[in-house]
């Protein structure tokens, strides 16, 4: 998930931080679903690396960063061990996990958009891949665990919207050739802040108009 | 999903039409599952573009058409908006949607087979990718929504068979170097017609022989 | 799934054998889920070829072996026909199927690691792709059928561990430039034996520490 937006070293550490917090959420879901430690590790790997893997396959960057950089691969395993030994403590700081997950969302929607754009994709496609980088791992996590992805559900706070805002702003800045590190950080902060506000105030996206209320509870 | 079978412009419009009708079915499932508008959009994108995306990744055509052509990407979003504002009306013409979906099936099984063949794959592999192009989006749609894919289920009318017939005929015509636009249209019409007849007369494929009836209801 | 570890011809036959036994397990799940014959075929194809397809997409080997070698593609269809006509007999030898599946696991974790390593991936990434080659098809099979993948579940015997042992040994041998056919066969035999012992003695992997027993039954 590297991109030369920030200095390579800083970008790499930001990537690892994003992978780590996503992986924590995957390993925690593994605990809640009563999976064993290998099930936890698979969910952690998929959540942390799945979005970037999808993006890299689409833009033809093989082998994907997830398999080319050892740190990327080992980070979810560290997260798994942490949750394995300390999960009651990790659960207790669930709000903190939500905040870190929002930070990962912000970082990845920017980094994913930049990498896709640098590989020659158009603005719209780059924005879409930025959102997919940020949200794709969580969707795969939920599918593997046999749950309907939270991203799709009406009864969850908005998740795609913050990523879409951050990715769109990034694409506009790239188009205008104005994506400085500070501007990239601002785009990530935008996604991060909107996601935090959505969690705090329970923001949801609308369902289809004129949906009969009698069917609202069926899903 | 392009292929120079018809004139580029006509082929492009046919592709968009196929993507559109598949996307409608995805967005409608989103309404039925009580998803929000972004969940509807994700299902519409996946249903309309997923089959072609899988084919393009397999044949190494990156970035896939879904991300290289803006019209391909925007069409499912238009379908989402339409269903969002008008879904009772769209539901009412559900039979029409089924007919359009059958048309998309016919178009995509031919276009997918042609594109795979042009990328150097063999007849059998091209046929398989034609079927995957036509049916893959619907399978991904059902998996994301937490449903067992209709394609696999015994209690649904056959869907793979019409696509298989159209794709096989296309591959045979390609092998014989006889795939004129008219012949391609005939292959698409074959798949379309068989699917319509299957829906009209409730054609199903057989289950395993000697399956004990006592276990029939468990799935 | 070819690799020049053994003579090409022997390797090819071992690959086909592995695909065949995996495909049998896919087709049998299709019977249990009450799918029709096309649903059985899709599950057989996905189980037999899915792991190798994922590996080939990741290492950029397109078209993947599954679509480049006709024998690879036809083998799952033969397995489907066999189960379709003879499934009570196949069910009766379910233990034998388990043994063959363990053999496929052993063969594929070695062959997958070798192929990834030959494409220039590092030791850890090659090991991971070896495990993914061996276990990926079964995960996709379970996801398609609407089941939580057996690989993740605590109440199933370990499956990832034998593959991990075989793949790790293979990667170490490759690193030391000592992977003779005999050494490769030993790595496959290691995975095979550990999996058989796990099935025989009900070996399971641990869940997260301090997991409260009151929540154990919820998943």
UniProtKB/TrEMBL annotation, chains A, B, C:
- Which GO cellular component term is one of those annotated? plasma membrane
Transmembrane segment boundaries: 12-30, 37-54, 66-86, 93-114, 182-203
UniProt keywords (A-Z) are: Cell membrane, Membrane, Transmembrane, Transmembrane helix
> Per UniProt, what is the membrane topology?
Multi-pass membrane protein
Pfam families (UniProt xref): Gly_transporter
Asked whether the UniProt record includes Transmembrane among its keywords, one would answer yes
Protein family: Belongs to the UPF0126 family.
Tell me the ranges covered by the Glycine transporter domain, including all copies: 13-87, 99-173
Designated name of the protein = Trimeric intracellular cation channel family protein
Q: Where in the cell is it found?
A: Cell membrane
> What organism is this sequence from?
Streptomyces coryli
């Amino acid at each position: 998930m590297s991109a030369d937006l920030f200095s390579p070293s800083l970008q790499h550490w930001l990537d690892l931080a994003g992978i780590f917090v996503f992986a924590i959420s995957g390993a925690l879901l593994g605990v809640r679903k009563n999976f064993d430690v290998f099930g936890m590790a698979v969910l952690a790997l998929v959540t942390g690396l799945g979005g970037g893997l999808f993006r890299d396959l689409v833009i033809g960057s093989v082998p994907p960063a997830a398999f080319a950089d050892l740190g990327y691969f080992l980070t979810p395993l560290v997260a798994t061990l942490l949750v394995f030994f300390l999960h009651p403590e990790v659960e207790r700081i669930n709000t903190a996990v939500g905040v870190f997950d929002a930070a990962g969302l912000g970082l990845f929607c920017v980094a994913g958009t930049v990498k896709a754009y640098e590989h020659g994709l158009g603005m719209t496609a780059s924005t879409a891949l930025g959102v997919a980088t940020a949200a794709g791992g969580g969707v795969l996590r939920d599918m593997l665990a046999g749950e309907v992805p939270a991203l799709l559900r009406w009864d969850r706070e908005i998740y795609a919207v913050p990523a879409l805002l951050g990715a769109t702003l990034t694409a506009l800045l790239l188009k205008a050739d104005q994506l400085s590190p500070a501007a990239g950080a601002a785009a990530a902060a935008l996604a991060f802040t909107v996601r935090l506000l959505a969690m705090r105030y329970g923001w949801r996206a609308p369902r289809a108009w004129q949906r009969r209320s009698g069917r609202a509870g069926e899903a």
